[in-house]
Amino acid sequence: MPPKPKKIPMRMCVACREMKPKRDLLRVVVPAGSESNEATYDPRGKLSGRGAYICRDEECLKKARKTRALERALSCVLPDATLLELEKEAKDHAAE
Q1: Alpha helix stretches (DSSP H) within 21-68
Q2: What is the pLDDT along the chain (96 residues), one digit of tens a residue?
Q3: Which of 64, 67, 76, 80 lies closest to 26, judged by CA?
Q4: Of 51, 46, 40, which is closest to residue 86 (Cα–Cα)?
């Protein structure tokens, strides 16, 4: 009997609403127990708290920024520093 293939966790991008493998997406999280209601980029995807996912695509980032999709999904404020980190990560991914 062959081994059972591992299940790949899927998540939905808040901008394009497509289901994609969790590893292919960027995670933004409002850390659990934080005093400030601000979201941060979670490069490892391991921080505890409420998270939202977005594609590593500059177009999805533009759409999310325009529609404020991340702020709505997390019910919080998204600082400019976090947006810059996400844009840098998307550009690095596009360069590969």
Answers
A1: 58-67
A2: 778 888 999 999 999 999 999 999 999 999 988 778 889 999 998 999 999 999 999 999 999 999 999 999 999 989 999 999 999 998 888 777
A3: 64
A4: 40
Query: Which residue, among 35, 37, 33, 83, has the nearest Cα to 62 in the 3D structure?
Result: 83
CA gap 73, 95 in Å, rounded = 28
Q: Quickly tell me which residue has 């997390």 as its tokens.
A: 74
Place of tokens 């899927």: 10
Q: Are strands 49-55 and 19-21 parallel, antiparallel or unpaired?
A: unpaired
CATH T-level topology, domain 10-95: Hypothetical Cytosolic Protein; Chain: A; (3.30.1230)
